[in-house]
Amino acid sequence: MIKKIDHIGIAVHSIEQAAKLYEALLGLKITATEVVEEQKVKVAFLPTGDSEVELLESTDPEGPVAKFIAARGEGIQHLAFRVDNLEEMLAALKAAGVRLIDEKPRHGAGGAKIAFLHPKETFGTLVELCERKDQEV
Ligand code: ZN
Asked: Hey, which residues does 56 pair with through a beta bridge?
């Protein structure tokens, strides 16, 4: 049911600063930015072939990305897998006894439906499952 790595989320203090590396030096392009109020975060997407880098900048010192950086420093914050049917996947994982942060899909950046698994279940890596309407990207 997993199709590919959809994106890798990287927590940064400043998207503007990080863009200097990713755009000017690595040649990627930010194709969209968006504020996700629910997660207290600004995101920037940089497509890289079949997947994307998602830069995450906190908009609130109490937000999850700010807390992540305070505890662990900047760096990879989560790994997102593309799935065909998020609700079905969550139901199957729940039935198998996997601990979930989100038992129901919620709204993510770019109009995606997303849900996070509990990092205790995924060997310390926060895993996001992501379903998109425009499944071509
Ligand atoms: Zn993500």
From this structure: 11, 43
| Distance from residue 132's CA to the centre of ligand 1 (Å) | 12
Determine the distance separating the centroid of ligand 1 and the alpha carbon of 124, expressed in angstroms: 16
Contacts of 25 (CB under 8 A, 6+ apart): none
The verdict on pTM exceeding 0.85 is yes
Q: Residue 25 C-alpha to ligand 1 middle, in angstroms?
A: 23
Q: Which pair of structure tokens corresponds to residue 10? A: 């990287």
Q: How far apart are CA 106 and CA 6, in angstroms?
A: 16
pLDDT tens-digit profile of 85-116?
999 999 999 999 999 999 999 998 888 999 99
User: How far is the centre of ligand 1, averaged over its atoms, from the C-alpha of 85 (Å)?
Assistant: 17
CA dihedral 50, 54, 55, 60 (to 10 degrees): 170
Domains of the chain, start order: 2-131 (3.10.180.10)
Ligand 1 midpoint to CA 56 (Å): 9
**Which residues have C-beta within 8 Å of that of residue 61, sequence separation ≥ 6?**
none
Output the CA 78–ligand 1 centroid distance in Å.
Answer: 7
